[in-house]
Amino acid sequence: MGSSTKHIFITGGVTSSLGKGIIAASLAKLLQSRGISVTIQKFDPYLNIDPGTLNPYEHGECYVTEDGAETDLDLGHYERFLNTSTSQDNNVTTGRIYNNVITKERKGEYLGKTVQVVPHITDEIKRNFYKLGNEDKYEVIITEIGGCVGDIESLPFIEAVRQTKWDLGPNNFLVIHLTLIPYLAAAKELKTKPTQHSVKQLLEAGVQPDILVCRTEHHLPQDVKKKIALFCNVQLNCVIEAMDADTIYDVPLLMKKEKLDERVMSKLKLTSKTNTELEQWKEFLGRLKNPTQEVEIGLIGKYISLPDAYKSIIESFIHAGASLECKVHLRLISSEEINPENVEKKLGELNGILVAPGFGERGLVGKIEAVKFARQKKIPFFGICLGMQIAVIEFAQNVIGLDDASSTEMNPDTKNPVIFLMEQQKGITQLGGTMRLGSYICELEKGTKSSTAYGKSKIHERHRHRYEFNNEYLEKFESYGMIAAGKNPESGLVEIIELADHPWFVGTQFHPEYKSTVLAPHPLFIRFVKAAIENKHQN
Known about the structure:
globular; nine-stranded mixed β-sheet; alpha/beta; seven-stranded parallel β-sheet
C-alpha cells in the first residue's frame, strides 16, 4: 500500500447516471491544475469480468486503454479530461474480484479457511483500491464506485471503503457522495428527503460522507443547504451545488466556483504546487462556445438510439470542432434505415459522412450505400474499424467488380473474402478480452492524407477487432486507386486505406477516437472536420 498516497472515494445515491464519472474527472482536473499528481479508477459492481462482452445498449461504448484493457466508458472521460493514459488497473469489476479470489481458493492459498465476503472479498477489493498507489506515482487516487448506495451488489465495495478509512488514517481518506435534489414543479420546491435517505443508507453501512455534491436543476438556496448539512451531518461549506451544465467541459469550472477542490485540499491537508488557473481549458471552452462556422456530419451506425454507444467519437468531434472554431452538428443516422432508394434524401445535405465501428451484419446494406454515396458524390468520408472494412467491401463490389466480395464475419462462404479473420484469432472460442486490443505501431506512406494529418511517419493507435484486410487483394485494390496509407510494420496489417482521387476518403482499422482529448484533439478528426468545412464552402 502506497503510504503517501491519499484516497478519495466517490459514491452515488438516489439514482444512477448522476455523473459520478464527470465529477471525478472534474475534481481530478482541478487537483492536476494545482500541480498534484492524480489518477482515477472505476470499480463496477457487475459480474462481467470487463465490459467487452456487453451490448452497447446495456452499457454504452466499451473503451480501450493503451495496454489493451476493455473498460468502462468513464475511463474515456478520465483520459479526455486529464490528458493522461489509464490502464487495466484503472477499472475493476465484481467479476474480476471474485475471479481472483476463487482462483486463489482453488490454488489452496487460503490454507483451508472458509472463504467469505468479509474479509476475503473486501480484502481483494482493498488490494485493488491501493494497487495504483503502490508505484508512488500519485499523490491522490480518486476511486469511483459504480452503481448506487443500497444496491445489493455495491455492498462489498462500500464495506471495503469503510475498512479503508481505518487502514489509511486521518487526512488520507475522503468520501464524496453524489446525490440528487429533485424539484417538484407542482409544489414549486426542492426536496432534500431523497438525499437524506441516501446518506442514511451510507451511514448504515458505516460510511460518513465528508462532502455532498448535489445535482440539481435549480440553485440551492442557503436554507436548503443548511437543512442538508444538518440532517446529513456534514459541514455547511461541504454541501456543493452541481447545476446542470451546457457541456460536461463546463463542470470543472463550475466545481471550482463552488470550491470543491479547496474543500478537498483542506480536508486532505494538501498544498498547491502551482496554479495554472486552467488557462488552456478556458481557451478551449471559449472556442467551443463561440464557433465561427458550422458543418453537418452524419454518423452512420446501428446503436444510434443510445448515443453513449459512440461516446468517444462524439467527444472527438467536440475537441476537433473547437480547435477549428467550428460547431459540428452530428446527425446520428441508423444504418438500417438507409437503402438505395432513400440514400440521397437521408445523406444529401451532409458535409461529411462517418461510418461507425460495430459488429455483425445488421445494417450492412445501409452502411455500404452510405460509403458508395460518399465515394461517388465526393463527400468527405471517415470509416472507423468496421467502417473501414465496409469501405473496402463497397469498393471491391462496385469499383473492382467482385460482386460477392464480403467479410467472412458477415458471409463465411464468400468467394472473395476481402476482409477475413486474423490469423491469431483462429481457434479462439472465448469472446472476452480475446480481440486484437490496445496500442500498436503503424507506419504511414509519405504524401498520403493521413501522413499529412499526423505530420509524422510513425504513429501508435488503439485497436479492438478480430477481422482484417486480406493482403492477397492489396495489389488489385491499389491498381484501382484504393491505397494502403498505413501498415503495421511487424504483421503487414493494413491499418489505413485512402482513395487517391477523392477530396478526403480515409478508413482506419484502429480507433482514433480513443486518443482524442480536450488539450490534444485527434489529427484525423481535425482533418476530417476541415474537409467537411471545405465541402460546405464548395457547395
